[in-house]
């Protein structure tokens, strides 16, 4: 059953160039009839295809600011990566105050909830000796969905708490209800997201039975609205409720540093995450206590819905942190009860060969046999990312064996009787003349 995804294709711009299928970490894209096709069941909304598409044919869909008009009272949840988008910013309160000038009545920092999550994770790792090592962060929804798809044996290693934005949303709504007396459904809670994975998680939360937010707003659009509003802020009120620990989550290594330990690895970039998870599965990292994962380069500051270069944004966040206290928000017993996932994570098998075991094994054997007959170049000319994936597509009825140009060459040679079909292949694939 497919779910809504933030990452979508703009068909008119797609040239069928196969760049996206070569970079998709879950092989969720095919090129068919000259256009890319995204397989919903495999997509984890990491946004890698958006970043690499030379024709800008992929985009992240978020909610419109017009949706704020559906509610009586609106709360903004700014991601800490938002602070790294502005030049010469020396006080986060300027950004927070400006948010109240562009349609929001209240602001609740996601970085404050991040400090609470860091607090409880730190205490759990010290007190619960049976936690499997390494404990894997569950903050990045793209990374969590990747584990549920490709590394199901590691699901038990996930920390099991909700993402900071989910906790922030619950706390913000409660606070707004107390402050206004309005019923919860009259209050709109909106996340300002740096990436499509978190936009998707707003509608389809990871580890939660029901959404806790009313929408996700693209950081790119919020940035354009904030620039003029920030210029009008002269003496901002002290709204900030987070310090170094929370704002540090914006960049790779920030979550790990907040645990005050040394045996951790912080990994950014979806390809790097896959390599490290493979090593964890193989038992090659026995000394690692905690594994932080961010699908985007340099962490959330590298999301494809941000404005600034991720390396420059990281430097700005680091500069901001120099003038902040270590932490401003702590976890309480009441809040900790809200921080746990209410729906257990489970394996998400994609393109299951068959519900019948015998039939599935028969299809698997056919896939392996076909893969052996294919050239093994993984050139993507067939519209699939690899020869293995083409074999799967053929057996599952989504493609033809002759989609492979090498198989087509053999077919043409047989039909023509000349034995010469090399001229119809692209130069890199022609056989070398003796």
Describe this structure in words.
The chain is 36% helix and 10% strand. With 434 residues, the chain is α/β, with parallel strands linked by helices. The protein folds into three domains: 7-60, Alpha-Beta Plaits (2-Layer Sandwich); 65-336, no CATH class; 357-429, no CATH class. The chain has a four-stranded parallel beta sheet with strand order 6-5-8-9, with helices on both faces. Strands 7-11-10 form a three-stranded parallel beta sheet. Helix 3 crosses helix 8 (219-231), helix 4 (110-127) packs across helix 6 and helix 14 packs across helix 15 (387-395). The longest helix has 18 residues, at 110-127. It is globular and about 80 Å long.
Please provide a brief summary of the model:
Helix content is 36%, strand content 10%.
């Amino acid at each position: 059953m497919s779910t809504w995804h933030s990452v979508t294709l703009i068909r008119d711009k797609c040239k069928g160039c196969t760049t996206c299928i070569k970079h998709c970490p879950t092989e969720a894209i095919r090129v068919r009839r000259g256009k890319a096709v995204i397989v919903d069941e495999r997509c984890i909304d990491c946004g890698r295809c958006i970043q690499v598409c030379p024709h800008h044919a992929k985009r992240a869909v978020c909610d419109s600011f017009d949706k704020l008009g559906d509610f009586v009272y609106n709360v903004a949840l700014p991601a800490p990566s938002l602070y790294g988008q502005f030049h010469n910013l020396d006080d986060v309160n300027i950004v927070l105050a400006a948010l109240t000038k562009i349609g929001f009545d209240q602001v609740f920092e996601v970085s404050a909830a991040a400090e609470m999550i860091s607090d409880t994770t730190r205490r759990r790792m010290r007190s619960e000796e049976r936690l499997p090592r390494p404990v894997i962060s569950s903050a990045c929804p793209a990374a969590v969905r990747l584990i549920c798809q490709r590394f199901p044996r590691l699901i038990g290693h996930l920390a099991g708490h909700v993402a900071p934005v989910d906790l922030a949303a619950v706390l913000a709504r409660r606070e707004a209800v107390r402050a206004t007396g309005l019923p919860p459904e009259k209050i709109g809670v909106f996340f300002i997201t740096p990436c499509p994975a978190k936009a998707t998680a707003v509608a389809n939360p990871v580890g939660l039975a029901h959404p806790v937010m009313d929408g996700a707003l693209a950081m790119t659009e919020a940035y354009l609205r904030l620039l003029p509003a920030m210029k009008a802020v002269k003496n901002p009120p002290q709204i900030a409720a987070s310090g170094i620990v929370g704002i540090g989550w914006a960049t790779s290594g920030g979550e790990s540093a907040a645990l005050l330990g040394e045996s951790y690895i912080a990994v950014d970039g979806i390809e790097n995450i896959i390599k490290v998870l493979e090593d964890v599965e193989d038992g090659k990292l026995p000394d690692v206590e905690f594994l932080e994962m961010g699908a985007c380069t340099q962490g959330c500051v590298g999301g494809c819905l941000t404005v600034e270069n991720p390396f420059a944004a990281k430097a700005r966040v680091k500069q901001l942190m120099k003038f902040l206290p270590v932490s401003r928000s702590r976890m309480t017993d009441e809040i900790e009860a809200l921080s746990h996932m209410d729906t257990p994570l489970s394996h998400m098998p994609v393109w299951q060969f068959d519900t019948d075991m015998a039939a599935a094994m028969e299809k698997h054997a056919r896939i392996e046999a076909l893969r052996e007959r294919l050239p093994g170049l993984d050139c993507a000319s067939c519209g699939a990312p690899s020869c293995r994936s083409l074999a799967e597509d053929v057996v599952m009825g989504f493609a033809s064996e002759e989609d492979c140009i090498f198989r087509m060459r053999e077919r043409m040679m047989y039909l023509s009787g000349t034995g010469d079909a090399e001229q119809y292949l692209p130069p890199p694939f022609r056989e070398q003349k003796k």
